[in-house]
Amino acid sequence: MRRRFRAFVVAPVVIGAFAMTSSVAFAQGAAARACNGDIQAFCAGVPHGDGKIVQCLRSHQQQLSPGCQADMQRAAGLMKEVVAACEDDVHRYCAGAAPGTTRDCLRTNFRELSMGCKRELFEAKKAM
């Protein structure tokens, strides 16, 4: 029961932190090339930063090209893997972090993170 409760509390924090990280990587990586036309069509006036382009794309999910949809799904899958691997680390090192600062907290404590968390962070960054 305690583990399940902790997952409900920690998972949204981790997802939020990595959503911003993945948004930046997404906007700069191969997925951006797959979604470039969709970004121009649906999100041209959206300012860059803080995951706003990814939020815009998500709001137009049904209208996106198949390639962009596939890359968005792949990125979401990577995020789930990172969340699962880093949940205990977030709880241990960043439980008291202010909202929106979990990514910075993990970066500050990077040397202390578990090997599984580091590996998933690396793999997600590489895949983006």
How does this structure look, described?
By secondary structure, this protein is an all-alpha fold. It has one domain. Helices cover 76% and strands 0% of the residues. The chain contains six helices and no strands. It has helices at residues 2-28, 30-42, 52-59, 66-94, 102-108, 115-127.
Tags for this entry?
128 residues, mainly alpha, 0% strand
Assign the structural class, choosing from mainly alpha, mainly beta, alpha/beta, alpha+beta, or little secondary structure: mainly alpha
Note poorly predicted spans.
1-11, 19-24
DSSP helical segment count: 6
Strand content: under 5%
Gyration radius over CA: 15 Å
Q: Sketch the major β-sheet.
A: none
Mean pLDDT: 79
Cα distance, first to last residue?
35 Å
**Domains counted in the coordinates: how many?**
1
The succession of helices and strands, N to C, reads HHHHHH
Brief characterization of the structure:
The protein has 128 residues and is an all-alpha fold.
